[in-house]
Structure prediction request, 199 residues.
Amino acid sequence: SGTLLVRSIGSHSHIVHGVQNSPVNRLTGLERNKIKLEHEQLIERIKELKELLGSKELIYGVIKNELKEIKKKYGDKRRTDITADISDIEIEDLIPEEENVISISHSGYIKRIPVATYRKQGRGGRGVTGTNLKEDDFVKHLFIASTHHYIMFFSNLGKVYRLKVYQIPTGSRLSKGRAIVNLLPFVPGERVAAIIAVK
Prediction:
């Protein structure tokens, strides 16, 4: 703003030079009136600039107006849209698809084990223990399904539930697994009657 004041005063320097280089007898009444008017305008402009320099609000107002003019003169419409990037990637896309052995015990324990964990039993081999259940429990359902498949659970109350295979906790060959009631919203007395794997 200080530069603005000096520039404004300097822009009227032609008045001073004009008076210095003109003989008094050559100044007509019209020229004198013109010089007087410009002098009064200059005094008024100096007064306005002094008020501007003494007020932060006025300075900010000038800056705001100048920025608006710049935007109006040089601005153009945005050529790209800024939008929220909602990714279409699902959890399943990050989980490798692999075959798993799913087992459910009579007491309602479930687990999955990657097929690669099991060794193929050769002729005359001793085999691999598949689970470590209590004496009164046994494997009731056993099948193979991909981690991306759904398991449909049909309960004895006629309800149907479903889980992705990858949502079933992975267990070791000797672990009994996780209780199904911790994975599905069963009510007391409800249990799995049948299951099926679907894509």
